[in-house]
Specification:
alpha+beta; 434 Repressor (Amino-terminal Domain); Cyanate Lyase, Chain: A, domain 2; 2 domains; two-stranded antiparallel ribbon; globular; Cyanase; lyase; Cro/C1-type_HTH; EC 4.2.1.104
Length: 200
């Protein structure tokens, strides 16, 4: 008897299941096609930038020194995750002569889609860094609160450097520095709110 009710309940789930969507219809929409084309364009440019770096035989640290940026920001530039300023463009071109003027111009005009693919967490190096930040997250938050007050560290007014040091046993150790502006939470005083109230 119980199995009979189970079959009826399962059938009801299928009867009332939400409608499915056509992936073909979604992927063929103009907006989706435009987004995919943009992603492919950025990926192709990134491949050319990294190839120029390899051909020049330079590390990210070398490039960072030549263009005057942190090594992390330099890597972000080549990966399409940061915007190249006109002032830095000539330095990057000098550092990587194989870069085309078209790619340099695109980097200057480019407004990055600053995002990340969730599958990147399957990469052990990335996951371990993520794990370290989340594991120490509450302690970091409490220390920021004690030292700065009620607020957060900005990831926009922000510098990140990756380097190494040598441990007591002579082993190489990784040093990651986050240097972000402290942003305090505000007390939301109604009189200071310049936007019209929806209650008016």
């Amino acid at each position: 008897m119980r199995f009979h009710h189970l079959r009826r309940a399962r059938a009801a789930c299928f009867v009332h299941a939400p409608p499915t969507f056509s992936l073909r219809r979604i992927s063929s929409s103009p907006v989706m096609m435009s987004t995919v084309a943009k992603q492919e364009e950025v990926a192709a440019r990134t491949a050319r930038l990294l190839a120029a770096k390899e051909k020049a035989g330079k590390s990210f640290d070398d490039l960072a020194t030549e263009i005057g940026m942190t090594n992390t920001y330099t890597a972000q530039l080549l990966l399409g995750q940061a915007k190249l300023s006109a002032a830095t463009a000539s330095k990057l071109k000098a550092a990587l002569p194989d870069l085309t003027d078209v790619d340099i111009a695109a980097l200057v005009a480019h407004f990055p889609m600053r995002s990340w693919d969730s599958t990147i967490l399957q990469e052990p190096n990335v996951y371990r860094t993520y794990e370290a930040v989340t594991h120490y997250g509450e302690a970091i938050k409490r220390l920021i609160n004690e030292q700065c007050g009620d607020g957060i560290m900005s990831a926009i007014d922000f510098y990140c450097d990756v380097g190494t040091t040598t441990g007591k046993q002579g082993e190489k150790r990784v040093v990651i520095t986050f240097n972000g502006k402290f942003l305090p939470f505000i007390e939301q005083v109604a009189a200071d709110n310049g936007a019209p109230s929806p209650r008016d």
